[in-house]
Design brief:
Elements (H helix, E strand, L loop, with lengths): L3 E5 L2 H7 L7 E4 L13 H17 L3 H15 L7 E5 L4 H16 L5 E5 L18 H7 L4 E2 L2 H16 L2 H7 L10 H9 L10 H11 L5 H11 L7 H13 L7
Parallel strand pairs: 1-2, 1-3, 3-4
Antiparallel strand pairs: 4-5
Helix pairs in contact: 2-3, 4-6, 6-7
């Protein structure tokens, strides 16, 4: 039997994926590299930086981070033992940044393994499609039929995009998405949305302004703010924790009243 590794974009997808008849091992990529710092020397330094950030954002302990992220990352080094790796990701910035991080890894650790991408922006029967984590086991099985085999050129595009994102340079990011992005169809719109996170002369970015607009309309309940923001800004794929951190920052700066 063919050895297959399925790399899932989070635990929400894992729950229904386990109920499918799809073959292969499963690895869950739980990072949110679109939030917080990503520039640190060496792999150990990188994961230390990320662990510290997620501890401040969500209270994750170093032990939890090691178990949920670092140990899964270490499993990637065995990808050459598989004949096929399927990447299950979405179109939003959160997933696209995680995806190009992984493509950079595969690009710098070459193997003869066939690499496929499953990355829908819409799914029949889900008019308000929010992500693959909401799909039934049967629809996940059907979704595999939409996969695209990634080429070496796709890996190069992904690696370049990750290095540009990691640099924090607006010019490098623009350059990375200026040309043809191959099979990475959602990379350009996601990174264009990221460019709108660079602060303007007033120190605010698109997300800040959108949250200020919502709060300025009279909405004070944070759950309602999350709902309104997410519905209009799905391209970011932000968690409630990330939106909460933004709101806290705006409150601390005196731009919106405290909750």
């Amino acid at each position: 039997m063919q050895r297959i590794l399925n790399i899932l974009n989070g635990d929400a997808t894992l729950e229904n994926f386990r109920q499918t008849a799809l073959p292969g091992d499963v690895l869950v990529w739980r990072e949110i590299l679109s939030e917080g710092p990503v520039k640190a020397p060496g792999t150990d330094g990188f994961f230390r930086l990320r662990s510290d950030y997620l501890a401040s954002l969500a209270g994750a302990s170093p032990e939890d981070y090691t178990r949920k992220v670092v140990l899964e990352y270490e499993r990637l080094h065995g990808w050459h033992r598989y004949e096929e790796v399927d990447l299950w990701f979405e179109y939003d910035l959160t997933d696209q940044v995680n995806l190009v991080f992984l493509l950079d890894f595969f690009h710098t650790h070459p193997a003869g393994t066939a690499l496929y991408l499953i990355c829908p922006a819409e799914v029949p029967g889900y008019p308000d499609f929010r992500g693959i984590g909401e799909l039934s086991p049967q629809d996940l099985e059907k979704l595999k039929g939409t996969r695209t085999r990634l080429t070496q050129e796709d890996l190069m595009v992904g690696a370049r995009a990750w290095q540009a994102y990691r640099s924090g340079s607006e010019a490098e990011i623009r350059s990375a998405i200026a040309g043809d992005t191959g099979s990475l169809l959602w990379l350009k719109p996601a990174f264009e949305a990221h460019l709108e996170r660079f602060p303007g002369p007033d120190g605010l970015d698109r997300i800040d302004r959108e949250l200020l607009r919502i709060a300025g309309s009279g909405v004070r309940n944070r759950d309602e703010i999350y709902r309104i923001f997410s519905a209009a800004n799905r391209i970011y794929g932000m968690t409630d924790l990330s939106v909460d951190a933004r709101l806290n920052s705006l409150e601390e700066r005196g731009l919106i009243p405290g909750g």
